[in-house]
Amino acid sequence: MAPDQSAGLALKTAIKRDRRLKRLALLAVRWGRTLPAALPGWAWFWRDWRSFRKAGGRASLLDTYPCLNDRTAATAIDPHYFHQAIWAFKRIQSAGPRAHVDVGALVDFVGMLTAIADVTFVDIRPVSVELERFTMLPGSALDLPFADGAVHSLSCLHVLEHIGLGRYGDEIAPDGAERACRELTRVLTPGGRLYLSTPIGRPRVCFNGLRVFAPGEPCALLAPLALREFSMVDARGELRESVHTDAEIREEDSGSDHALGLYVFEKEHAT
Fold first, then answer.
1. Domain spanning 79-266 has what CATH number?
2. Can you give the residue ranges of every domain in the chain?
3. Which of 152, 54, 156 is CA-nearest to residue 103?
4. Residues 234, 129: Cα–Cα separation, whole Å
């Protein structure tokens, strides 16, 4: 390993082990993502353009389509969304509902659910698409368009943490997560299940991106519901199924300072 690479690795390791340094480094990364593509990307682009032309390739400069961020050594994934989709799909499929309601998840995931159930998708930003077994229902998690106890199978994945922070054009509401949890509880039918995911770790608000909850906090916010399963994608990006809510998120030596909690709640029948 070259000396500069060794020094860089040592610096990254030191940052990962110091929570304060990591916090500052992650802030720099988040802010840095708002900057334009780096100059090396354009250098690669023009080098490859010359090589393509020299090899006999024919293309007009007016039709060029620079993609400057795809030259990676490996295919990158977002471990939260990757594992979350598999985790949730398996459990919904196993439960076998005829109809399912999703609140604000990624539309790709919602579309795949139509392979196993009639899906109603609720979001403040309507999706204009014609798809068999798919119904778009404009609405907010703060005021779900369903009667009390009307939904048997319900999911809200990587959404709760955003509500009330204005990121997606929603209203500013510091108590947005609490209000959304009351709505999710209200519309669930006795015996119905809620599949929920949200970032977990050191509790905080990262305005206007997201909130991070203590692992047990969603259980308190959804107190009328019974927790049936807790799994997580830990801070290292590894899926750990059926663990306890006090399980270590393994932040030490990881490049992240939060994990993703995966919860299955059930509304018990009245006794």
1. 3.40.50.150
2. 3-63, 79-266
3. 156
4. 34
Tell me the whole-structure pTM to 2 decimals: 0.84
In angstroms, rounded to a whole number, what is the distance separating the alpha carbons of residues 213 and 206?
11
| Tens digit of each residue's pLDDT (9 = 90 or more) over 158-206 | 999 999 999 999 999 999 999 999 999 999 999 999 999 999 999 999 9
The Cα 108–Cα 18 span in angstroms is 37
pLDDT in tens, 127-158: 999 999 999 999 999 999 999 999 999 999 99
Question: Angle 19-32/3-17 helices, nearest 10 degrees?
Answer: 110
Question: Comparing C-alpha atoms, which of 214, 199, 219 is closest to residue 265?
Answer: 219
Q: How many angstroms separate the Cα of 138 from the Cα of each of 102, 103, 163, 172? A: 12, 10, 15, 18
Decide the pairing of beta strands 258-266 and 204-206.
unpaired
Q: Give me the sign of the Cα torsion angle 167, 169, 174, 176.
A: negative
Radius of gyration of the chain (CA): 22
Q: CA-CA distances (angstroms) from residue 233 to 84, 108, 198? A: 8, 20, 10
